[in-house]
Amino acid sequence: MQDLTRLCGNSFMVIGRAGMDLYADPPGTRTEQANRFYACLGGSSANIAVALRRQGADAALLTCVADDAVGRFCVNELDRYGVDRRHVRFVGGEARNSLALVESRLEGHQSVIYRNGAADFEMALADVEAVNYSAYSGLIATGTVLAAEPSRSAALRAFALARSAGLPLIFDIDYRPYSWPSDEVASELFRQAGETCDIIVGNDVEFGFMAGDYDRGLRKARQLASESAAIVVYKMGEKGAVTFTGGREIYTGTYAAAAIKPTGAGDSFLGGFVAALAAGHDAEAASLRGAAAAALVVARIGCAPAMPTPAEIDDLMVRQSPRAAFRKDGGSAYRPLRQQ
């Protein structure tokens, strides 16, 4: 288990995908009825890097992008947001960046994601071995980097190099079944990551998957916190989150949002949470700031362009008290936890 005091630094290396998101425009339009789209940067790791930048942290992205118009779009967007992309490599051939067709609507929401021949899976050992990990305050990875080779071996090598440099490892489970060859492979790789990483963030379904039983996700999060990780955040959607750290179980609620879409909340939460820890907030305050960031993102168009600033989070937290968190008892029953 790593000493997390280095999170007081504010420079992070993020490993994983960047892509293009196309939102049917105007908001509320179904994709099949759209005749125009709003293009923006997407991909969970790129979104997290942007979230950190908007929060005042430095962020670099380590990935591969296609040597085509979409790949160049992603690189240009990274530049626009101030994300360091010196470790972003162009790859040729048939590799392509992720492309998502997304709707700014809740009822009947559709997100259609194209991941054939994903360029980010081309990340290789040479890419991760070229990084000076001692220049960063932490390494952030999403689960998708482990889904295919050569990205899988490269990511595990990056974990080892970052660990040798004394960096905390921050892991967003980010389980996307369509990226994996089988549930068995995903379960084993997530087990390895869970035993390696210092901060682990995921939702109730993702921890349930790690446990091999969706009713035992909370137990799995508690186990990771007691055996290996310094901080584990178990998210329950609108029911709030449980943060396990230092032998404590901290229940925090969520903020009301005038949501127009469900996408981007997880990436925004992680960026807000990590940035808050880096700014010196404790785990409880960091979880609340992550929840506020998530509430702001789902009320805006896009993911990367929707990421909030610290001032916007502060304003929401002044205007609103968090809704009651819910404590999970007996596997499925929830009861409100009183707010302090």
Task: Give me a quick take on this structure.
This protein has helices at residues 44-54, 69-81, 125-129, 151-164, 183-196, 204-211, 217-227, 265-278, 283-297, 310-319, and strands at 11-15, 19-24, 37-42, 58-66, 88-91, 98-102, 111-114, 138-142, 169-172, 199-203, 231-235, 241-245, 248-252, 325-329, 333-337. The protein is of the alpha/beta class and 340 residues long.
Structure write-up:
The strands form 3 sheets. Strands 5-4-1-8-9-10-11-12-13 form a 9-stranded mixed beta sheet, sandwiched between helices. Strands 3-2-6-7 form a 4-stranded mixed beta sheet. Strands 14-15 form a two-stranded antiparallel sheet. With 340 residues, the protein is an alpha/beta fold. The two termini are 30 Å apart. The protein has a single domain (4-18, 43-62, 121-326), classed as 3-Layer(aba) Sandwich (UDP-N-acetylmuramoyl-L-alanine:D-glutamate ligase). Helices cover 34% and strands 23% of the residues. A hairpin with a 2-residue loop joins strand 12 (241-245) and strand 13.
Going by CATH, the architecture would be 3-Layer(aba) Sandwich
What's the shape? globular
- Low-confidence segments: 330-340
Query: What fold name stands as the CATH topology?
Result: UDP-N-acetylmuramoyl-L-alanine:D-glutamate ligase
Alpha carbon gyration radius: 19 Å
Helix content: 25-40%
Number of domains: 1
Distance linking N and C termini = 30 Å
Query: How many beta strands in the DSSP annotation?
Result: 15
pLDDT averaged over residues? 93
**Full CATH superfamily name:** Ribokinase
Largest sheet: 9 strands, mixed
